[in-house]
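Researcher: Let's try something more involved. This one mixes different molecule types, so please make sure each is placed in the same coordinate frame as the others.
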Amino acid sequence: MLEYVFILPLLSFAAAGLILAFGKWLPWKGASLGIAVASWGFVQAAMLFFKALQGGLTLPYEVSIPWFNAGFLSATLGVYVDGLTIAMLLVVTTVSLLMQIYSLGYMHGDPRFKRYYAYVALFTASMLGVTISNNMMVFFMCWELVGVCSYLLIGFWFEKASAASAGKKAFITTKLGDLGFLAGLLFLFTLTGTFQISAIMEQAHAGLLLPGAAAIACILLFFGAVGKSAQFPLFIWLPDAMEGPSPVSALIHAATMVAAGVYMVARLYPVYALSTVAMDTVAWTGAITAISAAAMALVCFDLKRVLAFSTISQLGYMMLSLGVGGLTAGMFHLTTHAYFKALLFLAAGSVIHAMHTNDMREMGGLKAKMPVTWITFLLGTLALAGIPPFSGFFSKDEILAAALARNPWLYFIGAATAAMTAFYMARAFVMTFHGEPRDAHKFDHAHESPLVMTGPLMFLAFLSLVSGWALARHELFEKLVSFEGVLPFGLAEVSKLKVEVSSALLAAVSMLFGAWLYKSRPDIPAAFRKKFSFFADMLDARYGLDAFFLAFVALGDRLARLLVKLDFDFLDQIAIDGWAWLGLKLSQLQGRFDNAVVDGAVDETGAIAMAGGRLARLAQTGLVQNYLLVVAIALSLFAAITFLI
Amino acid sequence: MTLEHYLALSAILFAIGLFGVLTRRNIIGILMSVELMLNAANINFAAFNRFLHFDAAVGNTSVIFIITLAAAEVVVGLALVMAIYKNLHTVYVEKYNILKG
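Model: All components are placed in one shared frame. Result:
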């Protein structure tokens, strides 16, 4: 069964090509093929998952075929499967399948329906490639392909200018992080001499890597994760990515692609675990991201953006968990989060599909109109807020416990984030589904979504309800994903029960408070917002990071203009034209020399010959008598000399 | 009469001939001077034959040969002079320069 894992991404790749080429003639414009492939992948992944949980698989499994040889580097294409891979595989295939079924309803009648499914299939293929690749090079290629698909799908409705620019923003921002990723990858290669993940891990386990060097590589690699997983300060692209279709947000910008950064850190965990610096960088970046994103969600009125900020915050949570040594907790949270956040996004999509607006200020009272969406959204909210026994509670508490064991400050940030999460989710839920309808016209047109959309919602709600409890029981998930190595720092003893009870209480109180506030006294938050408008504006402006990066880009633009000016007015003038001028002048000088000296020498030689000729011609009078005279004189002289001697 | 008298006469005659050849402008005069020089040589030949090798005839033979040659030379020379004169209407040698480039 493991032998066939490599087929999963290839099949998806093939599906993408086939849908694009022949989608017109396939049932449902190619969606059938995408869904069939995704279903098969889901079945495979689920079977692997349950077998692995029962201990029926020998892990890790690795196989590779030679790809190319370049000098001392023999690159391979291959598959590396361990518990981490299987957990991620299940997440990707599940959400991909459900999202594709959901999209049948959501994208119904879209003019580029076929292309949508091709992109999604391509994305799924790339994401599976990231998941199972045993080679950092292939990993990076798929990582970039995932980014391309993200760009294509965010800008899917490119007629809207905001969607087109959001796609560009996402692509460029993540590329900024990928620069660091590439640098880290190459640096890691110089350290280990291989791209093969298992070999890198072995070297890390065997202590062949210097912690300092490993820390540099890890931090560079982490830049990639900061971009891809929308960590502080590169998270600015994710809220804008909500311009894409809601199912895309659920698949790419909640469950899988943004989790790729977390997955990457988890994949190279033995390397990260070598140095405290790298771990602390991950942990603190995660913590800062978690709390700053949660704060932004408090004031946001766009339903999908609230969820986007929440996603950023939860990704920060996962990073925090990895950074404090909680590999299991982080990946557990990744799994549960994927389900409940996909659920929330799809439910939000269902609302948006009905209301044709993202703005929560125009919603309200939808509970009566959309009961299925209401109940599933409620379950997702409870899971995200961390109310027992929903899945978020289990994973979040493990993270908080891990954070407390490492550093109380990290725990406080995490706990504050948890409280804020519960609050803003209650706010979003109440504003959307309860109270009086604020826009009567839109409310009248709202209706419950068809079964093809509510079906995946119910399935995901079911997963959100049980996945945490089922996997936390008997520490099942830990069997799948755990870190056997040694952490570079010591951990304090913590009472897990205390953390669980306190955080559950905190979440419940915070949630009830939020619900009460927005249901009964919506005037209080409004007044509060007016009073502290400075903070609200700062949060709305995303801490000015957008402006900062825009200024950064503008600076780059101005610098480029300056360079162009320099190039045209200075370098071209001096270096190019100057050279030409110099060449011209030199040529003129040389020409003058040529005319005067060389030609002069030639002319003079001729002139000398001419003068000689003129001189010699004097003797040639043509008068025979002259010649004779010479002969006579000469003879006389010879005669005289003969006589004298 | 000794050999020296003959030689002296021959030398004087030769010198007169040479002087004539070098100084005359008239082509006829030059030819006549050349005859003088030839005859000076003839006197030499005849004198050496008479005083040094009385029995031999080679000197005299040469004299006869040279007289014949001179006669032939005069024939050709005068014919040439006539031809040139017909073209140039002059006998002055410095005017004979039509081959000069």
